TrEMBL record:
<keyword id="KW-0418">Kinase</keyword>
<keyword id="KW-0547">Nucleotide-binding</keyword>
<dbReference type="InterPro" id="IPR000719">
    <property type="entry name" value="Prot_kinase_dom"/>
</dbReference>
<protein>
    <recommendedName>
        <fullName>non-specific serine/threonine protein kinase</fullName>
        <ecNumber>2.7.11.1</ecNumber>
    </recommendedName>
</protein>
<dbReference type="GO" id="GO:0005737">
    <property type="term" value="C:cytoplasm"/>
</dbReference>
<feature type="signal peptide">
    <location>
        <begin position="1"/>
        <end position="18"/>
    </location>
</feature>
<dbReference type="InterPro" id="IPR008271">
    <property type="entry name" value="Ser/Thr_kinase_AS"/>
</dbReference>
<feature type="region of interest" description="Disordered">
    <location>
        <begin position="130"/>
        <end position="157"/>
    </location>
</feature>
<keyword id="KW-0732">Signal</keyword>
<keyword id="KW-0808">Transferase</keyword>
<dbReference type="InterPro" id="IPR011009">
    <property type="entry name" value="Kinase-like_dom_sf"/>
</dbReference>
<dbReference type="Pfam" id="PF00069">
    <property type="entry name" value="Pkinase"/>
</dbReference>
<dbReference type="GO" id="GO:0004674">
    <property type="term" value="F:protein serine/threonine kinase activity"/>
</dbReference>
<dbReference type="GO" id="GO:0005524">
    <property type="term" value="F:ATP binding"/>
</dbReference>
<feature type="compositionally biased region" description="Polar residues">
    <location>
        <begin position="130"/>
        <end position="140"/>
    </location>
</feature>
<keyword id="KW-0723">Serine/threonine-protein kinase</keyword>
<feature type="domain" description="Protein kinase">
    <location>
        <begin position="35"/>
        <end position="353"/>
    </location>
</feature>
Length: 392
């Protein structure tokens, strides 16, 4: 009863908020869209993201505003837009709806979606903090309460994911990466936070601000320093490969293949999907067998072996040997030995097929309320992210 009343009051408040915004919010033309700018929903560095409403249809969008005090930032905005345009129409990359530049400000308009892959990972894995036995997730474990001690009970905790579902979702991520590569770009910052979910919970790659060419030559020490510095700014450390760490490259080495960089980051992302975090930012608890976040340092990335659950833990048998082997193939420290995108996709498809699935079809619904209705943005407390508009 109280829940229904709260839902009704929340809906009324949202309606009043929309009326107020329509009266007071500034209007802006971005590409072919006339939108009314709403409340700020995110910010960082030189950019801010606002909720925006189409004045003709009432459809909600995300409006990214970037302050461009110098030509270099403006050039970066144009390059980011060029990446979006190069993969326009691909179902697993984010759609840029429009872009407008006014004086020292760039506006980019995107569709609006409520969830990222990180939301699902947090909900399903409940990864542990190193200083606590409590889950970092605010959600209950979807398969019931987890065992806190391996020796206290014979209970075997089920995997956070049905393996096939996780791999089918990951297949969509890999297809988005391949689309970027086929268009001549590498992403360079693949991670759970940069994967959104569309209306069908299909994965969509976002944030092309770090994207660049597929390869880069290593000719001088200055070139190496610049490459490592760029990586420190654009590639999140727990997802960064060894070659982009200090001392990982020398002048005269083979050119850096950023496609292999994306493969490494994608391998870290798959591990994070299955266990909660990148393999290089934590360890498995000896007590519970679950993955816990500690810290990520360059030294942890240079380790020869990936962390493994204790043999007696439930988590040691959550996923097939073929899936673990796929992750290992994507996380080869030697970049020449690391799988390519095509090789990883081929092996992934074999694993999906062996598990009885179809990699060409994904039936995936993860966010639903207790009544079985679709999880919607208003009930999520206004948590919003940028995403691709679903084509029908």
């Amino acid at each position: 009863m109280l829940a229904s009343l709260w839902k009704l009051l929340n809906s009324l408040w949202q309606a009043l908020e929309r009326v107020w915004e329509s009266w007071t919010a500034p209007s802006l033309v971005v590409g072919n869209y006339q939108v009314r700018v709403g409340k700020k929903i995110a910010e960082g560095g030189f950019s801010w993201v606002f909720k925006a409403t189409d004045q003709s249809t009432g459809r909600k969008y995300a409006l990214k505003r970037i302050h461009c005090p110098d030509p270099e930032i403006l050039r970066a905005c144009k390059e980011e837009a060029a990446v979006h345009n190069a993969v326009q129409g691909d179902p697993h990359t984010m759609e840029l709806l429009g872009m407008t530049i006014e004086k020292q400000t760039c506006y980019m308009l995107f569709p609006l979606y409520a969830h990222s892959l990180r939301d699902i990972v947090n909900r399903r894995t409940g990864v542990l903090d190193a200083n606590s036995t409590k889950s970092t997730s605010s959600h209950n474990h979807p398969y019931g309460r987890s065992s806190t001690s391996m020796s206290s009970s014979s209970y075997k905790e089920p995997a956070p994911w049905p393996e096939l579902r996780a791999l089918q979702l990951f297949h969509g991520i890999m297809m988005g990466i391949k689309a970027l590569h086929d268009a001549g770009y590498s992403h360079r910052d693949i991670k759970c936070e940069n994967v959104l979910l569309d209306n069908e919970d299909e994965p969509v790659l976002m944030d092309f601000g770090s994207a660049g060419p597929l390869e880069a030559p290593i000719e001088t020490r200055a070139k190496v320093r610049n490459m490592v510095e760029q990586a420190s700014q654009h590639t999140t450390l727990p997802y960064r490969p060894p070659e982009l760490l200090e001392g990982g490259l020398r002048p005269g080495d083979a050119p850096v293949d950023y496609r292999k960089v994306d493969v490494w980051s994608a391998g870290c992302t798959l591990f994070a999907m299955l266990y909660g975090a990148s393999p290089f930012e934590g360890e498995f608890s000896r007590q519970s067998g679950r993955f816990r976040v500690t810290d990520c340092t360059p030294l942890s990335i240079l380790k020869d072996e990936l962390p493994r659950p204790p043999p007696q833990a439930s988590s040691a048998s959550w996923y097939s040997a073929a899936t673990i082997q796929l992750i290992q193939d994507m996380l080869r420290p030697n970049r020449q030995e690391r799988a390519t995108v095509d090789q990883a996709l081929d092996r992934l498809r074999h694993v999906i097929t062996d598990l009885g699935g179809n990699w060409q079809t994904t039936v995936f619904r993860d966010f639903a309320d207790d009544d079985g209705d679709e999880y919607d943005e208003e009930e999520a407390g206004g948590i919003v992210l940028i995403g691709r508009q679903r084509r029908v």
